[in-house]
Give the backbone structure.
Amino acid sequence: MAGFFASLFHKKADASVSDSDEDALVTSPADDSRAEPLQEERLPVRIELCSPADGAAKSLEEVADDVFSTKVLGDGFAVTPSNGLIVAPVSGTITTIANAKHAVGITTESGIEALVHIGIDTVQLEGGPFTLLVQPGQRISAGEPIDQVDLAAVHAAGKLTDVIVVFTNADNVDAIDITAHGAVLAGSPVGALITH
């Protein structure tokens, strides 16, 4: 599982810190001795989350797949969709697209990795019911379309259609507060994520 997970996301080094910045030392005017480098204090960042589809919001624990319901891949939420238009739950850059077109990875500006997984065991459908609307490297805003899925074809194949959103780099997530329950619209607010 870890190998599969690692293949979905690739972290990039923080280009905002140069080698010379990392080695900078603070000296006191009265004392030329070298002091410890200052640690940059990172303030919490609140990321608004939106529904990835029209439908009914539910908790991860209600998803009929142990990998998601036990939060092996991370915490998040799910929506049982009423139509096949899937939108980005967060703003960021498209960093990963599964070959079967059933999963899209988005990395936010603050480095949070969101996995949007459409359906349960839909990798077995080899991309048939899915039409991707984005490409790797594309910047996208929350609420913009990322995928179109033929829900009838997914149901005909005996698969569930839940759209699952998980935040996979849990070490960077302080809290997830999902406030929406029941009926939601694609792009509508469902809660927030707090990161550091």
